[in-house]
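Hey,
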Amino acid sequence: MSAALSIDSVKSQAKGLNFRNRAFIAGSYTDAANGRTFECISPIDGRVLTEIARCDVEDVNRAVAAARAAFEDGRWRDLAPVQRKRTLQKFADLIESHTTELALLETLDMGKPIGDSTRIDVPATVNCIRWYGEAIDKIYDEVAPTAGNVIAMLRREPMGVIAAIVPWNFPMIMAAWKIGPALATGNSLILKPAEQSSLTAIRLAELAAEAGIPESVFQVVPGLGQEAGQALARHMDVDGIAFTGSGEVGKLLLKYSGESNMKRVALECGGKTPHIVMADAADLDAAANAAAWGIFFNQGEVCNAGSRLLVEESIKDEFLEKVKAVAQSMRFGNPLDPATQVGAIVDEDQFQKVLSYIGLGAQEGAELILGGQQAMTESGGFYIEPTIFDRVNNRMRIAQEEIFGPVLATLTFKDGEEAVKIGNDTIYGLAAAVWTNDINRAHKMAKGLRAGSVWVNCFDGGDITTPFGGYKQSGFGRDKSLHAFDKYTELKTIWIELH
């Protein structure tokens, strides 16, 4: 969506949207069996967009039964990989052709700027589906190096029925990271979107059917986490759960797996990324730009957001002024305005949570040097100014707990060894970043940081070819890259003795 468009023209396009609001089970849209719904509220202005089917155990049972039948009869699983590839490529093409519609749904539903939805979220979703479709007919099984009278084949086979439970911050992208490898490998997939952001997932189901993905191979069951999500996680006929979300829910999913059928669980449960800037960084302006966008992009609602800024003592004041200047230059406003760069917090609960952390930071003795207030109060939506704290120590809750909002905590260190120690002093290990002009220091710090991704002289680098996931309580298993196939397949050894 071009920035040349006016907010009025975007609003006009939004008025013409048709909100799909029902579950997609066994090939068609359907109400929840209990007839209940929940409100879909836009964080832009607090208005109710539609009522969405509030699925529960009965709906989940029906979806799982349909998914199991589809898997067992082989309608998708037994297709040649090249056939699954063609269908997924068509699915990606359909998503791309509906870019404007899907971007508007994403922005209305969760408050991200329309420019981001259009230029980042939809293209990344398309690329992910295409990439896994293209990859699947290039994955080879193996033959083990055995004795001459033995042939040992290592086969990678689809797991079966997969439930994907995804978050609200990047609804389409997080879903695609599961949809792509799960379907490419031949599984049946049930998607449970976050209740805060269900609209694009429900629409994607219809496009998948149009692309030719067989009935019941891809279903969408909206609802509350403690109802539909728990029912999927406890179901005895679900073979695997792929989850992105909070650590609290991740631990529940592990519990539910143990209490049911020991289904496979893959988790990505957030982070508290240390963004480390050494005094010898070659370009402090570039580092400051990355530090600001690393926390304020997507309103700070990013699992790997650089929420802890670690700056070498000798440059802290100078560098923090640069970060502050970048933050002040960001265009904050209505997410439907193509010029907006920082939009709305996803809902009132998250809005209040972020404000409470800002208050807590001040109580703990940190110095508030930018923002910290509710904004655009007249809109009826949920907006918080980009916020920066200085003089934070790593024992403060704003330095240890995932806020998931536009709040930056600034800490200092004396040398690289101390920076790594502070960076690792958290329960999380999703990502880290280091800015330095010393290649030896860069390698040593990257090795020492306990994180699934470490970026050097950049932030949030990578593409679909590189794995994404964490250490420690950030979870286990990887999205993106060929390594994601590991989450959705079983490895079978076939040992044949020749006589």
